[in-house]
């Protein structure tokens, strides 16, 4: 099940492989795309990161933040493939999702491109270290 991607921040070609369930991915040796649900443990995917081209993380409700942790775990462990947020993704969440490592978005409700651009550029400086590579303010103070 692959949702329509509205925003993608990657230069490589988008995979056409359908995303299989978390359980199916761990059991198949040829799966290249997987979909994580909120209760799935992203750490179980670590042995398969070298073959995964796409990890979709489902947000069935915008109030469920477990997908942020899944994204950060995967990126910190070296996953370089597409990490796509799908489902109930709101424009107010886009900048935070990008900081955790999401680089593609398939929201259930289409977003205005101008609103997304404004959300991504609202805070030019950050305080916490994350996987997006931006240097936090405390590090900038000691230059």
What report would you give on this structure?
The structure is a single chain. The chain is an alpha/beta fold and 143 residues long. The chain has one domain (7-141): Rossmann fold. It is 27% helix and 17% strand. The protein has five helices and six strands, in the order ββαββαβαβαα. It has helices at residues 22-27, 66-76, 94-100, 113-121, 137-141; strands at residues 7-8, 20-21, 33-36, 54-59, 82-87, 104-107. Strands 1-6-5-4-3-2 form a six-stranded mixed β-sheet. 28% of the residues are buried. The model has no long low-confidence stretch (mean pLDDT 86).
Rg = 15 Å
Count of strand segments: 6
Number of domains: 1
Shape: globular
Q: Helix proportion of residues, in percent?
A: 25-40%
Note the gap between the termini: 47 Å
The number of helical elements comes to 5
CATH architecture type:
3-Layer(aba) Sandwich
Find the structural class using helix and strand composition.
alpha/beta
Global mean pLDDT: 86
Order of helices and strands: EEHEEHEHEHH
Poorly predicted parts: none
Strand order of the largest sheet: 1-6-5-4-3-2
């Amino acid at each position: 099940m692959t949702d329509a991607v509205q925003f993608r921040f990657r230069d490589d070609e988008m995979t056409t492989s359908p995303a299989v369930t978390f359980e199916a991915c761990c059991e198949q040796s040829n799966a290249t795309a997987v979909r994580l649900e909120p209760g799935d443990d992203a750490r179980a995917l670590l042995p398969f990161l070298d073959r995964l081209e796409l990890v979709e993380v489902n947000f069935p409700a915008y109030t469920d933040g477990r997908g942020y942790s899944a994204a950060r775990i995967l990126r910190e462990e070296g996953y370089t493939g597409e990490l796509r947020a799908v489902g109930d993704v709101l424009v107010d969440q886009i900048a935070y999702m990008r900081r955790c490592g999401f680089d593609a978005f398939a929201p259930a409700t289409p977003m205005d491109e101008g609103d997304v651009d404004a959300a991504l550029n609202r805070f030019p400086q950050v305080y916490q270290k994350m996987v997006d590579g931006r240097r936090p303010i405390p590090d900038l103070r000691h230059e």
